[in-house]
Design brief:
The complex is a heterotrimer of chains A (about 210), B (about 230) and C (about 200).
Chain A: H1 2-21, H2 24-42, H3 49-69, H4 73-77, H5 80-86, H6 91-120, H7 126-151, H8 156-180, H9 184-210
Helix pairs in contact in A: 1-6, 2-3, 2-6, 3-6, 3-7, 3-8, 6-7, 6-9, 7-8, 7-9, 8-9
Chain B: H1 2-7, H2 9-31, H3 45-72, H4 75-107, H5 116-136, H6 142-169, H7 187-228
Helix pairs in contact in B: 2-7, 3-4, 3-6, 3-7, 4-5, 4-6, 4-7, 5-6
Chain C: E1 2-11, E2 14-24, E3 29-33, H1 40-48, E4 55-60, E5 67-70, H2 82-92, H3 98-108, H4 124-136, E6 142-146, H5 154-167, E7 172-176, E8 189-192
Parallel strand pairs in C: 3-7, 3-8, 5-6, 6-7
Antiparallel strand pairs in C: 1-2, 1-4
The chains are: A mainly alpha (about 210), B mainly alpha (about 230), C alpha/beta (about 200).
Chain lengths: ~210, ~230, ~200
């Protein structure tokens, strides 16, 4: 019970900070919409539905990266990381709270981005949206932990994409697959498995990422 | 010290590795029958597959040592994990190179996305390159060791996950145009394969011990220098 | 409360602490002095449990929930108000009667009027006072304070003096400071770190 409360406290704090600062969400939104427009010009005529679906995933992954890069910024600015590490709460709660907040941001962006995509390119069916929803979990879980790693590195913004992209490849496969395959069930199951496996690893290993 | 007594075996092992490599080369080129379809280019298979398997083994070893580090916090495990992953990356690169040569020889292209094994190694290559970038951008110490260890564990989980992802992807990314089955191995071929595999494994182990010894020596020197300062 | 023998800490190639011995009994007030770069901050971070020693033995009796820490940085969210910051940590530390305690601490450090202002708008002195509130919030048994008088004006320093005087003897203190004379009446032991 206490664990859940801690996670909720921390997630609430992140939402409050974003509502107040209002810098990350608008940037992510503008970025994803701009990317769609770029895609229109980048896709030669007659590229077909599949190409557009693929590009949707490129847009989502890079928009998520944008948000993830800033996810630990409030903790860095005040040196608060130490404060959270010192608190009696489980260290994994710090990760979970932050990942939950990033998830909320990502979903908020997608509420606008997915209809925009349907408007600009092709409609998205239920399986595609389910794919996005499942992949969100994986992106937030893994991305939040990697962002914490990157925060400890000298080359912060440079290294997060390098760490994240190889791990994002299976998510992209699952997402695109659920959108264009006649049998989306397999891909959705794969995404769910990815989420489960990596969430467990992230949950277990966050402790080691933050202690010195 | 136990290290030096273990190190004394290394030259003997190196000699063994050299001998095995020589033996396997001889077997591959003079004893093993030529493949009906692919001809002489198929011979690369005898090295390509063992190199790939050894790369996996190195990554697994690195991840094991990483787990031990997180559990015990002994610096030694961090070093062993690093050397394991370093070696794994080297062998991974060799896998990509030998795979590319084989593709060129068999199908006339230097790269193909339809070889699941090659694509998997490409993804792993990218992943482990990021490992080194991470490691070199964090100051030495328990922090760097912990981050490296966690990332190494992610890597070992990524292997099966990516493998399935690539399998799933092949349905809609590229239909399998080029079909490569593991050659049905006759007795001699199998024996040659085993010898080559043994040679690569011993070679990898020797390289591992040499690099580890070098890094430990480095560390001891630094500690001595500090103690004198 | 804290016992250390031959404590060592290395950051990368640099050895910051070498062969430090420390004994802090419950109720003690240990003052750590030393020139800049002598490792005071590192020692305090080790004793608070923020870092692990590279060598030697370190035993800290109270667990995380009973330790209060004040660092060089305030450990506060710049975009949250004073009240929100303390409420957050109050929840994480499961402080009983949270609102009352926060109100009391803010009052005692003269921050009640500024309670709804964002920390980013605080002066350094006010931020330091709030950081002290955060350290004392959960009524810890062990207080590790790194140069607590930094940036405090006369009034702030007097408030801190009062707090320390009222708690010393009951609680255990480990304080790093450039001004040991100020704390002389409370001090039960001294540790001087040499320059590395």
């Amino acid at each position: 019970m206490n664990y859940i409360e801690d996670v909720a406290t921390l997630a609430r704090k992140d939402l409050r900070l974003e509502l107040r600062a209002r810098d990350t969400l608008p940037a992510m939104l503008l970025f994803v919409l701009s990317t769609f427009v770029v895609f229109h010009f980048a896709l030669p005529q007659g590229s077909g539905e599949a190409a557009a679906q693929g590009l949707l995933w490129v847009a989502l992954v890079f928009t998520a990266l944008l948000g993830l890069a800033r996810s630990w910024a409030p903790e860095r600015e005040g040196g608060v990381f130490d404060g959270l590490v010192l608190a009696p709460c489980d260290r994994s709660a710090i990760w979970l709270g932050k990942a939950a907040a990033v998830l909320v941001f990502l979903v908020a962006i997608e509420v606008v981005a997915l209809p925009a995509f349907a408007l600009f390119f092709e409609p998205l069916d239920g399986a595609a949206v389910a794919g996005v929803a499942l992949a969100n979990l994986g992106i937030c879980a893994v991305g939040t932990l990697l962002a914490a790693m990157a925060a400890a590195s000298r080359t912060r913004e440079l290294i997060l994409p390098l760490l994240f992209l190889p791990l994002a490849i299976p998510l992209v496969v699952g997402g695109v697959g659920s959108a264009i395959s006649p049998e989306p069930g397999r891909y959705l199951l794969f995404l769910a498995l990815y989420d489960a496996v990596f969430a467990i690893i992230c949950w277990a290993s966050f402790e080691y990422v933050v202690t010195e | 010290m136990s290290t030096s007594s273990r190190n004394s075996r290394v030259p003997a092992l190196a000699a063994l590795a050299a001998a095995l490599v020589g033996l396997s080369l001889a077997l591959v080129f003079f004893v093993a029958p030529e493949d009906a379809d692919q001809g002489i280019s198929q011979k690369i298979f005898y090295f390509h597959v063992p190199i790939a398997l050894t790369a996996y083994a190195c990554f697994g070893w690195g991840a094991l040592k990483a787990l031990l580090y997180l559990w015990r916090k002994d610096e030694r495990y961090d070093l062993e994990s690093y050397v394991g992953i370093h070696l794994g990356t080297v062998f991974g690169t060799l896998t990509l190179l030998t795979g590319s040569i084989w593709a060129k020889a068999s199908w006339g292209v230097w790269w193909t996305w339809s070889s699941n094994q090659l694509v998997l190694f490409l993804v792993l290559f990218l992943f482990y390159c990021a490992y080194f970038m991470l490691r070199f951008s964090v100051e030495e110490g328990p922090r760097r060791a912990s981050l490296s260890a966690v990332y190494a564990l992610f890597g070992v989980v990524l292997v099966p996950v990516s493998f399935f992802a690539i399998r799933l992807a092949s349905d809609f990314i590229h239909p399998t145009v080029f079909n490569r089955e593991g050659p049905q191995m006759s007795g001699t071929m199998f024996a040659t394969f085993c010898v080559a595999w043994g040679a690569i494994t011993v070679l990898a182990y020797v390289l591992y011990r040499v690099e580890l010894a070098g890094k430990l020596l480095d560390q001891h020197l630094r500690e001595l220098r500090e103690a004198l300062a | 409360m804290i016992r250390a023998r031959g404590l060592e800490k290395r950051y990368g190639r640099k050895r910051v602490l070498r062969g430090v011995d420390l004994d802090l009994a419950p109720g003690g007030f240990l003052v750590v002095t030393g020139p800049n770069g002598s490792g005071k901050t590192t020692l305090l971070r080790l004793c608070a449990g923020l870092a692990l020693p590279s060598g030697g033995a370190l035993e800290i009796v109270p667990d995380r929930a009973r330790v209060g820490f004040l660092g060089h940085e305030g450990l506060l969210y710049r975009d949250l108000t004073a009240l929100e910051n303390l409420d957050l940590f109050g929840r994480l530390y499961r402080v009983p009667e949270r609102r009352e305690r926060i109100g009391m601490l803010l009052g005692r450090f003269g921050l009640w009027d500024a309670r709804n202002e964002r920390v980013a708008a605080f002066s350094r002195g006010m931020a330091q006072r709030l950081a002290l509130c955060r350290a004392f919030l959960h009524d810890p048994d062990l207080l590790v304070l790194d140069e607590p008088f930094t940036a405090l004006d006369g009034e702030g320093a007097a408030l801190l003096d009062r707090e320390l005087a009222s708690l010393a003897g009951d609680r255990t203190f480990l304080v790093a400071t450039h001004d040991p004379h100020r704390l002389a009446p409370l001090t039960s032991g001294r540790l001087a770190l040499g320059a590395s």
